[in-house]
From TrEMBL:
Residues 26-63 form the Lipopolysaccharide assembly protein A domain. GO terms for cellular component: plasma membrane. This is LapA family protein. Keywords: Cell membrane, Membrane, Transmembrane, Transmembrane helix. It comes from Aetokthonos hydrillicola Thurmond2011. The chain crosses the membrane at residues 7-29, 41-63. The keyword Cell membrane applies.
Length: 89
């Protein structure tokens, strides 16, 4: 089952890399990002997409262990609550 999950993840990442490459070739015009009063330098759309995808992948890789810790804490608390409810007298 683990190899199937790894294959699926690899296919999805490969698809996104191909889509970014295709978009970067078709849209070589430089763009600049504007946020409130800040404006970035002009960079190609493909480079911007690749940078955004990389930041997203790294961010999710860093956040997944935190979600696992929070989920295990909640399941432990729920198990303790269930044990208190079913007390034999």
């Amino acid at each position: 089952m683990k190899t199937l999950a790894n294959l699926l993840i690899s296919i999805i990442v490969a698809f996104w890399v191909m889509a970014i490459a295709l978009l970067s070739v078709q849209n070589a015009a430089p763009v600049s990002l504007k946020f409130l009063t800040f404006e970035s330098i002009q960079i190609p759309v493909g480079l911007l997409l690749a940078f955004s995808a990389g930041v997203g992948i790294i961010g999710m890789a860093l956040l997944q262990p935190l979600w696992g810790v929070a989920g295990s804490r909640q399941s432990r608390e729920q198990l303790e609550d269930d044990n208190e409810f079913f007390v034999d007298e």
